[in-house]
Design brief:
2 domains; alpha+beta; about 15% strand; Ubiquitin-like (UB roll); single chain; 5-stranded mixed sheet; binds FE2/S2 (inorganic) cluster; 8 helices
């Protein structure tokens, strides 16, 4: 008697007939999952609830009217939209480049009411009534701006990625009157980074366009 007890204790317990096998467990839970998923799809009120929640979380947007390169635009944009994204993504003006998107490289430089700004750091919705000039707005038809021509003459670029920002910044530098010497130009253009290291020729181009060469 004691021997029988000992042997039966050493054997794996016998599964009761009502305990599901691994296979039936998986089949059952899969089916239940399907029912839950189907329930989610057909449960109109709960789905509407999700849509309402998404709508409630939609970011606020605003209407803004501004002039870009002499053309008036009125757009409705997410309040967080930068001027750079407005120009590139909404107005199709891709001349201004996104380098760092953090105010450190100057590739996105444009003129706002005649002043140089990093468009990546400027909120579009704050520019109601502003006059914006991008690199696309410098030439007059086929006639390049003198600084654009000077960049060509001085071979002041390699990859060209920084060039639109350099040219717009150079135009601002000239309008501000900071072209008294190569050192002054270098100082007032120092916010524009050129990874290709074209600084000497960029300064020469600004000197040429400002009549110093
Ligand atoms: S992209 Fe705006 S400063 Fe670099
Ligand atoms: S020309 Fe290449 S980064 Fe300036």
């Amino acid at each position: 008697m004691s021997t029988e007890t000992s042997e039966s204790a050493a054997l794996p317990p016998t599964r009761p007939s009502s305990t599901p096998s691994r296979r039936t467990f998986i089949a059952t839970t899969s089916a239940a999952g399907g029912v839950i998923a189907a329930g989610g799809l057909v449960a109109g009120p709960s789905l509407l609830g999700v849509e309402e929640a998404v709508a409630a979380e939609a970011p606020p947007s605003s209407r803004v009217s501004l002039t870009v390169n002499g053309k008036r635009y009125t757009v409705t944009v997410d309040n967080r939209t930068s001027l750079l994204d407005l120009l590139r993504e909404h107005l199709g003006l891709t001349g201004s480049k996104k380098g760092c998107n953090a105010g450190a490289c100057g590739a996105c430089t444009v003129l706002v009411d005649g002043r140089r700004v990093n468009s990546c750091l400027t909120l579009a919705v704050r520019l109601e009534g502003a006059e914006v000039t991008t690199v696309e707005g410098l030439a007059k038809g086929d006639q390049l701006h003198p600084l654009q021509q000077a960049f060509i003459d001085q071979d002041a670029f390699q990859c060209g990625y920084c060039t639109p920002g350099q040219i717009v910044s150079g135009v601002g530098c000239m309008q501000e009157g900071h072209t008294g010497s190569a050192e002054e130009i270098r100082e007032w253009m120092s916010g524009n980074i050129c990874r290709c290291g074209c600084y000497v020729k960029i300064v020469r181009a600004v000197e040429q366009a400002s009549g110093r060469k």
